[in-house]
Amino acid sequence: LPRVFDEFHRGEQAGGTRGLGLGLSIVRRLADLLQHPVTIASRPGHGTCVRVRLPGAAEPVQALPIELPADALRGRRLLVVDDDEPARRALAGTLARWDCEVHGAADTDAALALVREARPEAVLCDLMLAAGRSGLELARRLDAGEGGEARPVMVFVTGGAAPDLLDAAREHGRHVLFKPVRPAKLRAVLERVLEVRPG
Fold first, then answer.
1. Taking the model in full, what pTM does it have?
2. What span, in angstroms and rounded, lies between the C-alpha atoms of 104 and 86?
3. Is 36 strand, coil or helix?
């Protein structure tokens, strides 16, 4: 258990997917810098809880508003492909708040069917899908014309893919975003690849 905070230390995970072993080491490092205690408790078969204790603020902190054009992406047709349903729904929810027309798929076959049917302008696809498949497979099948006449822009989203997979994605000129994706970064990439002119 103490080793989970070590860089690149990875435990066994269900489903065969494994991260890079950096998440908790980053948490520990930032918490140490901020002098916020971190504790961890785990019960086999039940789950793990990591806590970061934060001091109370003397006064409420006012968040600065972020001004974004309300209609910059309105009506743009987008497809989110991710085998992790909560992650797919969260990303789709962000896009829906920007008034995008959003469709979702859990695998490459369902995604290709939606590309043919809904003709999305861009596909946001997890780079590492279930059963050892990757978003690169979807990109190659779209390049081969399996999506019909639609030619959506591919944007990959990943929580930590293998370096060779990342290199392959970039070699094909695809954009790669890392989870958790900040909304401002996501929006900037979409506006760029869809050639949206805000305002």
1. 0.65
2. 11
3. coil
